[in-house]
Write a structure and sequence with these properties.
Radius of gyration: 23 Å
Number of helices: 11
Order of helices and strands: HEEHEHEHEHHEEHEHEEHEHEHEEEE
Shape: elongated
Amino acid sequence: MLDQRDAEFMRRAVELARRGLGRTSPNPPVGALVVKNGRPIAEGWHRRAGGPHAEVVALDRAGGRARGATLYVTLEPCAHFGRTPPCVAAIRAAGIARVVVGIGDPNPLVRGRGLRTLRRAGVEVTSGVLRHEAGAVSAWFRHAVVAHRPYVVLKLAASLDGRIATASGESRWVSGPAARRFVHDLRDRVDAVMVGAGTVLADDPELTCRRAGGRDPLRVIVDGRLRISPRARVLRQRSEAPTLVVTTTAVPRARRAAIERTGSEVLALPGRRGRFALTRLFEALWERGVVSVLVEGGADLAAAALREEVVDRFALILAPKLIGGDGKALLGSLGLRELAKAPEFAGDHLVRLGPDLLWEGAVQYRR
């Protein structure tokens, strides 16, 4: 039976972990809370990659008071040397008597070692407390470390009849202000935001996070034929986050150099006819420490990501508008010949964003 006090303290640790979303990659966001005699005495969260882990921050703040206390942590403590020493060593040195863990870490360097090490040292360990909530905050990391590619969220905004633009190409704005704020909140949390060349040519977006206190993600432009202009706004942002333009090796070196002169990076992947495998791109992003990607469109990029089965979750915003059959469709071709093989959305979250509806859920593929 779940101990309600354990649940209460773990819930606070989850709240702390959320503060690190989008700021810790390739490490996971983690929250920790030190409790003694039924009262919290210190807390911490992982703020950035290379910085002290949540457990160490909380233990440092607790100081000598940590001896005999209970440590609540959302993810299994690490037992290996990385950029920082192992957290289990800090836990033992602090004299913690009990550790309560939300969910295990699937990283092969950890994966049960942290819990086993603590138990062998005589520390009482309870795991699986608020597993769902603790797992949700580190879900992107846990997926990426197992799949060796980033967790991919596909965001689409369309009219009720599935159109993202009028026949003339006008698309600002299909959705309303509340929906746009939701998108900027997403940009604040993900490591990278990705669009296709068509979106850059049609809308000339900045792809920054316009949220108070937010941070810009890496901007990734998929442009197999390198059609975008060096004067595009996405290439000329004053931002700490870089822009990466991904094209094929078939594009002439001089055209790539024109983009590079803007200060943006160009990644050329093997491909033909202006196309390359998105799986190769996502593998390359994972190698760079990118744990999560928000794909914002357009229709062809969204369809390609679904065809290659790299989309893990969708966020579909439906606006109360009707554009008609001559408008731009929500998706490009999926090449489906059998309805039974169509990807399905297991929507588990439906909310109002002003006049619009947001439907979120996992993507299920019919192999």
